[in-house]
Design goal:
The protein is an alpha+beta fold. The protein is built from eight helices and 19 strands. α1 packs antiparallel against α8. It starts with 14 loop residues before the first helix and ends in a 10-residue tail after the last helix.
């Protein structure tokens, strides 16, 4: 039998075209369906992601609105920031004060007499104290001033004294710096010889002796005396502190002093209620809610005439979320003067967005933060509007919320489309091979029949008495 090497050569049919047309008839509509599904899923994923970002922003605004620190919060203002900084906590109360910094706290600094750098300082030990903390270093017979420096700095019991060596024209000097300020943190050094006898004559290690209560008769020199910070309030109340931070001078206020006033000068401070902080939190909520509404509307928009359909048009999740949020913010809470958004100057306009009457809101914030706190946060028995909206938002936001779950589901559907394409491609490849096999078999059969016909015709033409029709 004749072998057909080119599809259709035996039968005269265009087998390649026939098979391609059959395959395209299945592939083209399949790919169209897949692309439509993928486009829909991808659009919805983007839509839910955009909605989730908007809801997360709204949640952040609600978190601020339900933060109790924003209700009755205090603020401090100063006539100048040149001499001190001031911070306040929730215990501060309104008031005005004149503050004078008379003295800054200083840390003590000591300098020894001159030593020959590489010579032994003398055998024994040094008992060193800083305030109530004491540590001892042992000094070997061949120890130098540098060895003493290292021993001081490396001691695990050192409460905060740093040692260094300064070399001038006279020789090497041991310099000790306290890391702690104030009169309660003074350095004292007692020197002992190898027999643990105190050295009082200034020889050997006795050159490093220092007594803060008798500086004039000490061996080391005090180049910076320890001193306390002094703060005077309203010209008559004096507070002394061993550091430059005053935490109890005025209840709820912490001062950190940085410079000293001239005699007779002072800086005024005023502590007042920070109504702007709460008002900004409420306006921040309004802005975030309006932004959420705008996002939600744009994602559900449909215009039949213009053939515009947004990503989440007709989506049940988006509609339910809108309805639930709207129910929470439009409800009445309690029976105080401020029991609804309308009562504090927040109304809904004809487009569904919030409008704020700043005068009404400012008056509410300035005069009754307790009722505002009850309205937004609620009580132990009944949550307020903000707390309820916060709980409702948590159902939809976050990695475990409904919006994230919908995104995960749609992402899985997109991935399954790839599996469908792969399965379809395998099936089409099999069908194509089967079609070529069948058509090629038919082609070979037709070719064989044509050959047989030609042979029979030729034989008949050669029989005696047979007259060809062509003659």
């Amino acid at each position: 039998m004749t072998t057909i090497s080119t599809p259709g050569i035996g039968s005269g049919l265009d087998i390649n075209t026939i098979v391609s047309a059959y395959i395209d008839a299945q592939t083209v509509p399949f790919e169209a369906r897949m692309e439509e599904k993928e486009s829909t899923y991808t659009s919805q994923i983007t839509g839910y992601g955009t909605m989730r970002n908007s809801v997360d922003a709204l949640q952040s605004a609600i978190d601020t609105l339900t933060d109790t620190d924003n209700y009755g919060a205090m603020q401090v203002s100063m006539g100048s920031a040149d001499y001190f900084s001031a911070t306040i906590d929730t215990t501060a109360t309104p008031g005005s004060f004149d503050i004078q910094v008379q003295q800054l706290a200083e840390a003590q600094k000591l300098t020894s007499g001159a030593f020959v750098a590489d010579d032994p300082t003398g055998e024994g030990s040094l008992e060193i104290s800083l305030g109530d903390s004491t540590f001892t270093i042992d000094v070997a017979a061949d120890a130098t001033l540098d060895d003493i420096k290292e021993a001081i700095n490396d001691s695990d019991l050192n409460p905060g004294i740093s040692a260094s060596i300064v070399t001038d024209d006279d020789g090497a000097h041991l310099v000790l710096n306290s890391s702690q300020t104030g009169l309660t943190n003074q350095i004292n050094i007692t020197a002992y010889d190898a027999t643990d006898t105190e050295i009082v004559d200034g020889t050997g290690l006795g050159k490093l002796q220092f007594d803060s209560s008798d500086v004039a008769n000490s061996q080391m020199a005090e180049t910076q005396a320890a001193q306390d910070a002094i703060l005077v309030i309203d010209g008559s109340l004096t507070i002394t502190n061993d550091s430059n931070t005053f935490e109890e001078a005025i209840e709820g206020v912490t001062f950190t002093v940085t410079d000293v006033h001239e005699d007779g000068d002072s800086t005024s401070i005023t502590i007042s209620e920070n109504t702007a902080q709460l008002e900004n939190a409420i306006k921040g909520f309004v802005d975030a809610y309006n932004s959420y509404l705008e996002t939600s509307k744009s994602l559900q928009y449909t215009n039949v005439d213009a053939e515009i359909t947004a990503a989440l048009a007709g989506d049940a999740t988006a509609r339910m979320m809108d309805r639930q949020f709207r129910t929470v913010v439009s409800s009445v809470y309690g029976d105080s003067d401020f029991n609804s958004l309308t009562s504090i100057g927040i109304t809904v306009n004809e487009d569904g967005y919030f409008d704020v009457d700043s005068d009404v809101l400012s008056d509410a914030v300035a005069n009754n933060t307790d009722d505002l706190m009850t309205f937004f946060i609620g009580t132990d028995d009944e949550p307020g509007m903000g707390a309820k909206l916060q709980a409702q938002i948590e159902i939809y936001s976050g990695s475990d919320g409904i919006l994230s779950t919908r995104v995960d589901t749609l992402t899985g559907q997109v991935e399954r489309l790839d599996d469908e394409r792969e399965t379809f491609a395998e099936r089409i490849e099999t069908q194509e091979a089967q079609l070529y096999s069948k058509f090629n078999a038919m082609d070979a059969t037709v070719a064989a029949l044509n050959n047989t016909l030609s042979f029979v015709t030729s034989q008949l033409d050669n029989l005696p008495g047979v007259i060809s029709n062509d003659d």
